Amino acid sequence: MMVEVREALEGCDLVLVIMDVTRKFDPRDQFALDLLRRPKTKAFLILNKVDLIREKSKLLPLIEHTASSMISPRWFRFSALKRNGLDTLLDMVIAALPAGPAYFPEDQITDQPARFMAAEIIREQVLVNTSEEIPYATHGNCR
User: Fold this and answer.
1) What's the pLDDT tens digit per position in 112-126?
2) Could you count the other beta carbons within 10 Å of the beta carbon of residue 134?
């Protein structure tokens, strides 16, 4: 499986690895970091839920371990719930990606049909209102 995932990463312009800092570092995390050891893989490590860590000094060992696993470490402290660090992260992602051709007219925001967009809005509202993870297959019947 490692070879398949590495091959899939070869065409990526940027890989974002998101780690939950409230969870103990485990083999799955190390697997993700091992994928990023290739010199051509540009990656950002995003440490999520930093707002839940009362003692910020506990973040330092995680940052040191993960950064040492990456060839050119770029990491961000982030709180998805409070949106802390979002603007910085978006600016860095945009700066890291290569410029490309416009595939759609400027006023077109997606190539997806209205039915798909309605299902996405329903999923978003379920997530917002339940504060729980749900299966991706959760959708509205938009008939």
Assistant:
1) 999 999 988 988 888
2) 10
